């Protein structure tokens, strides 16, 4: 699988939503660029690049265009309006370099960044909008009024006036322009996530009613919207396409009863876009997939529960600790293959699918065969898979032998690597680390996986333990991997899923550190608490949930000295 490089410009909290969406797209290497080196998003990207803090056009281009060329960037997304403002004037410069900048054209941005122009445009287009006043002292102003910064966003800088006298007592920055609208007492606010491709194709629309929010940040929502809200959104967005609307965007609509009014148009992805991801719609995948919605995504949106249901989407904060492991002397990384780089169960099922296709004349129906096989695998009896299959399906020994031979000979067309593998290995190589693979299981099977998945060009050595007549946690296999990498054991870290074989084995062999990763659905699930309790978890072990977390600790190395 080819790895596509995507740059997220702006690494603050809003950039996290883009990263979450990109993580759900296979084969993406995520880069973050930001002027602030201590930003949150960099910890969830595959690489970070500090941006010179400058709005001067040439200085910006002198940094960003070479970065895109050097890192083979295919697409850029902006986190906030600030980054949109920097990227938008240079859309053609990026396009000439083969990079798609997912930002809107100037006509659309003028509306999105100026509430007065936006509301006037809505009126001109015959779209529903609350009355808008330049001043609360206008003769036709209807109190109470809510004042919004003309060029603001979110819930920042709002003022509510109960009458004209309240305005006379109000202190407002004279340099900031406001627009004023009737303040609704009771209303529902709907947020709409969507994307528009560079060809002008509009994605499905993901609606949600805000239940709890803080300063414009949605925390708890109800998916779905009434028909008239959905129709209004569709009409508005169809009219934005001719204005040059592009990329991930967000629309907000207010509703009371059977009436609704358009409130805001955001020219970048909404801060609460992850709530759309939670119900199965990914606006970023729509764009990177060529501007065509997958049927499943449209089905998900059409199946939204009716308003008033108990369906909810919610967001919460998660805390992570990043200790200083002092791994500056590390020069190489050794990976287990199965359930660390490759989804072993998915590999087995692919081979079983091919086996059934070749031998279906003597086997039960495909669904029954694969369902029974998966149950056996899930229950941990994978080592005796074909014996158990024949026993449960009432098949004879001749068919068992035939299935084993066919299974061993099948050649899947591709390999179920985990989504973070290619980007991580490529980035480790960019940072100067040597990469090894150390794996048990029969050599023929492991070589087949390595050949098909295309990992060999990304690694420097591989050790198949069975060829050494032993297996992990024998220190000999870890030492052999170090020898092939031409590194001392203390210059290596191990990444694997098995506490006893990978973590204990590598630490006993003198490796500097071990990273334990527990993949969802892996053949083995380690109980780290018990391992720690009985003394099987070395102190030089850190748990990670994704391979990109390795870059929290491995930040690059100098040239490797010869042993």
- Structural class estimated from helices and strands: alpha/beta
The structural domain count equals 4
Strand content bin: 15-25%
Tell me which oligomeric state these chains represent: single chain
**Separation of termini?**
35 Å
Strand order of the largest sheet: 13-12-9-10-11-14
Would you identify the CATH architecture of the largest domain? 2-Layer Sandwich
Outline: elongated
CATH topology of the largest domain: D-amino Acid Aminotransferase, Chain A, domain 1
Radius of gyration: 28 Å
CATH class of the largest domain, please? Alpha Beta
Q: In terms of per-residue confidence, which ranges show pLDDT below 50 for 5 or more consecutive residues?
A: none
- Largest sheet: number of strands, sense, barrel closure: 6 strands, antiparallel
Mean pLDDT over the residues: 91
| Number of strand elements | 20
Contiguous helical run count: 20
- How much helix, percentage-wise, in residues? 25-40%
Task: Identify the CATH homologous superfamily of the largest domain.
Answer: ATP-grasp fold, B domain
Give a description of the structure.
The chain is α/β, with parallel strands linked by helices and 563 residues long. The protein has 4 domains: 4-101, Rossmann fold (3-Layer(aba) Sandwich); 109-130 and 184-314, D-amino Acid Aminotransferase, Chain A, domain 1; 332-342 and 417-552, Rossmann fold, CATH 3.40.50.1000; 344-409. 34% of the residues lie in helices and 20% in strands. The strands form 4 sheets. It has a 6-stranded antiparallel beta sheet with strand order 13-12-9-10-11-14. Strands 17-16-15-18-19-20 form a 6-stranded parallel beta sheet, with helices on both faces. 41% of the residues are buried.
């Amino acid at each position: 699988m080819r790895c596509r490089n995507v740059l997220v410009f702006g690494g603050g909290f809003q950039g996290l939503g883009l990263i979450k969406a990109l993580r759900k797209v296979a084969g993406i290497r995520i880069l973050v660029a930001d002027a602030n080196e201590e930003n949150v998003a960099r910890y969830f990207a595959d690489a970070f690049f500090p941006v010179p803090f400058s709005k001067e056009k040439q200085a910006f281009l002198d940094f960003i265009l070479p970065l895109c060329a050097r890192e083979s960037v295919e697409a850029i997304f902006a986190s906030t309006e600030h980054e949109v403002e920097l990227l938008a004037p240079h859309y053609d410069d990026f396009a000439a370099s083969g990079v798609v900048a997912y930002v809107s054209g100037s006509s659309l941005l003028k509306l999105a960044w100026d509430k007065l122009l936006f509301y006037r445009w809505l009126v001109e287009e015959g779209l529903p909008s609350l009355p808008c006043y330049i001043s609360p002292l206008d003769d036709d102003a209807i109190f109470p009024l809510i004042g919004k910064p003309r060029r603001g966003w979110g819930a920042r800088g709002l003022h509510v006036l109960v009458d004209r006298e309240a305005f006379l007592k109000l202190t407002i920055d004279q340099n900031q322009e406001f627009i004023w609208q009737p303040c609704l007492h009771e209303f529902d606010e709907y947020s709409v996530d969507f994307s528009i491709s560079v060809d002008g194709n509009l994605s499905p629309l993901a609606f949600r009613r805000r239940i709890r929010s803080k300063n414009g940040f949605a925390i708890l929502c109800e998916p779905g919207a009434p028909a008239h809200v959905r129709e209004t959104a569709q009409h508005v967005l169809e009219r934005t396409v001719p204005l040059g609307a592009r990329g991930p965007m967000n629309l907000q609509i207010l509703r009371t009863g059977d009436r609704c009014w358009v409130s805001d148009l955001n020219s970048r992805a909404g801060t609460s876009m992850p709530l759309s991801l939670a119900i199965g719609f990914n606006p970023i995948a729509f764009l990177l997939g060529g501007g065509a919605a997958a049927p499943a995504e449209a089905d998900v949106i059409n199946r939204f529960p009716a308003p008033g249901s108990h369906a909810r989407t919610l967001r919460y904060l998660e805390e992570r600790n990043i200790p200083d492991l002092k791994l500056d002397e590390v020069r190489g990384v050794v990976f287990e293959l199965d359930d660390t780089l490759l989804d072993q169960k998915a590999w087995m099922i692919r081979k079983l699918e091919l086996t059934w296709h070749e031998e279906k004349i003597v086997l039960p129906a495909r669904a029954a065969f694969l369902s029974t096989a998966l149950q056996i695998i899930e229950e941990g009896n994978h080592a005796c898979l074909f014996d158990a299959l024949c026993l449960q399906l009432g098949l004879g020994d001749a068919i068992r032998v035939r299935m084993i031979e066919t299974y061993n000979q099948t050649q899947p067309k591709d390999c179920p690597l985990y989504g973070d593998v290619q980007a991580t290995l490529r980035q480790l190589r960019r940072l100067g680390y040597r990469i090894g693979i150390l794996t048990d299981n029969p050599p023929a099977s492991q070589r087949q996986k390595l050949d098909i998945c295309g990992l060999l060009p990304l690694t420097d050595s591989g050790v198949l333990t069975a060829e050494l007549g032993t297996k992990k946690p024998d220190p000999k296999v870890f030492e052999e991997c170090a020898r092939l990498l031409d590194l001392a054991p203390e210059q290596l870290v191990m990444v694997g899923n098995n506490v006893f074989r990978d973590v204990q084995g590598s630490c006993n062999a003198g490796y500097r550190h071990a990273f334990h990763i527990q993949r969802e659905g892996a053949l083995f699930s380690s109980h780290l608490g018990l391992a720690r309790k009985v003394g099987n978890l070395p102190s030089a072990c850190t748990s990670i949930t994704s391979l990109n977390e390795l870059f929290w600790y491995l930040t690059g190395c100098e040239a490797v000295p010869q042993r």
